[in-house]
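Suppose a colleague, Dr. K., hands you the sequence of a protein chain of 218 amino acids and asks what its three-dimensional shape might be. Before reaching for any lab equipment, you can write down a predicted structure in token form. Begin with the sequence itself:
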Amino acid sequence: MARIKKAWTIMETVIMVFTLTFLMGMLIISVQKMIVKAQVVKAVEDFRVIADAATRYHQDTGQWPWWGISADKSLWGMGFTKNNGGGSDGTPAPIARWDGPYLESWIAHPWSKEATDSTMYQWDDTIKCFRNSVRCYMVEMSMSYMAQTRRNYIANLIDRAIDNSDGPCNGTFRGDPSYNVGNGVCKDWSGWPFYWVANGSTVDNDLIDKDPNPRRDF
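The predicted structure, expressed as tokens, is then:
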């Protein structure tokens, strides 16, 4: 008896296409989660590397690096990569007892697509840190260009890795101080979340803040 070939019906074809599409979607989601997890691990390591570099800078010079990122890319990481962080108001100038470089180059965070000031880490400081009069020193990470939902998702993953998910108002990894300190109310992960490094004095000038013993008293 001749064997009869059974052609695929339209319904079977649709089911097969649907199944393959579903499996492909699940694979993409799984890969995306793995990528984000690797990015979070890299971000946590970056925070710790920059914090360690700043601490060594402080131990050598008796003060903290100058804050901020200039439009001039040659000034990124002032004091960390070159001995040019001792001027007033961010003007490049050598500083005594500098024994760097403390970083080989300044670092772009894992979600950077290009090296712009909105996709780099930023060494910064602020007075009235944690809703008091103490200055604190920090490594900020720009997330302001992200949609709020994605920003919250990533920031919560970083917070889980660093602080066991204690939220934007507690621990070492916190929400942007311009949102959370300025009005004395802790809010969310808006703007530039930061990795806290040390507290300084109440003097509103980081170049003369020579506190030799950084304090973790928040």
